[in-house]
Amino acid sequence: MKTIQRRAFLAASGAAVGLASTSSRAQTAPVRVGVLTDMTGLYADAIGPGSFLAARMAAEDAGGTVLGRKIEILSADNQNKADIGSAIARQWYDREQVGMVVGMDNSSVALAVEQVARERNGIAVAIAVGTNDFTGKFCTPNAFSWNYDSYSLTHGVAGSLVARGLDSWFFLTVDYAFGASLENDASDAVRKAGGKVLGSVKHPLNAGDFSSYLVAAKASGAKVVALANGGLDMTSALKQASEFGLQQGGQSLVPMLCTNTDIHALGLPVAQGISLMTSFTWNRNEQTRAWAARFKARHPTMPSMDHAATYSATAHYLKAVAAAGTTDTQAVVAKMREVPVKDFYADNATLRADGRLIHDMFLVKVKKPAESSGAWDYEEVVQTVPGDKAFRPLAEAGCPIAG
User: Residue 248, exposed/middle/buried by CB under 10 A (0-12, 13-18, 19+)?
Assistant: First the structure.
């Protein structure tokens, strides 16, 4: 296994510190949160170092201490590999007394860490996990999904586009749990709306060259070529699609997962007109703008929905620890479910029995260059989808502990 680079942040002083070694949860030991994310790979812009910053901001806003103990934020690069992610989480729970691991921006990593958290009696909060199985058949009492899943990313967009006459779809899908879940949910939404799926092709993670897949998509004649992938895979496929004349030939390119950092990388001339679902837009109201300005002052980009969700989850965990009066996992989990989630990211959200945070989602359209007031003014909210409509009903979740 490669050497894993890790960083720690001590909220009380703002200084970088080494990882402390301790054998017990002494009452004077720091309260630790581990941010486990893609620091250098294809998802790094949307989550990565920005999520480490967001968690640190949550610790700072909590005053740097909770229960009279300093708050420490750790970070590590999961390298989008389940074995590396689960090994880091196991060490954090066992040796570093980390109470919550947050992030896990890869479905395979998230599913692996979820089970480690069950074994080690820790808390796991997924931020950017697409597979519904995290809160479905593999759900656990101590695991939560804070941001989106494939159901919420696909149903609003697919139904809207089919209603507008874009009723034949072809999928270009990344070949792991996240891509499969996106394609399955989007296909289901397309068919329920009266459309049809003409086919799909699968590509490896971090593919680079999409030429053969785009040739197949063009040959399908589908009105919509849906990209069931994310990060650099999605932006690369969109850029290369123009070289193959898909849009010029009348086909619409629809990414199932696209963040504002992706739009920034693409540029409005390429991204304009794209419809997508998101849980957060920085320019939505005074509260989102204020937090985004604080974030941007310390980071090269405006915050993505993943960054905002990481802040929200970390802040809520710290509130739950304070309310419980202890870092005991069962007591904190109970308070996480009991204390309302109400912040700039999610207004009056609720944690469901399967671990899914129910909050509003937003159908947005990417602006044309002439409609934008400047850098990062990219998205126009077309529709607010209430949480009870945005996410899969609990009765369909398949979570064995949800009753």
Answer: exposed
CA separation for the pair 151, 356 (Å, rounded): 12
Q: Per-residue pLDDT for 241 more than 80?
A: yes
Residue 14 has pLDDT above 80, yes or no: no
Task: Go through the domains of the chain in sequence order and give each one's CATH number.
Answer: 6-148+285-359 (3.40.50.2300), 152-281+361-390 (3.40.50.2300)
Q: Give long-range contacts, CB 8 A cutoff, 24+ apart: 382-386.
A: 382/275, 383/156, 383/160, 384/360, 385/152, 385/156, 385/277, 385/360, 385/361, 386/360
User: Distance between terminal CA atoms of the chain?
Assistant: 40
The beta strands (E) that lie in 232-321 are given as: 252-255, 275-278
CA distances from 75 to 18, 55, 165, 222 (A): 12, 10, 46, 43
Does the predicted TM-score (pTM) go above 0.70? Answer: yes
DSSP letter at 3? Answer: P
Bridge-based pairing of strands 168-174 and 224-228 is: parallel
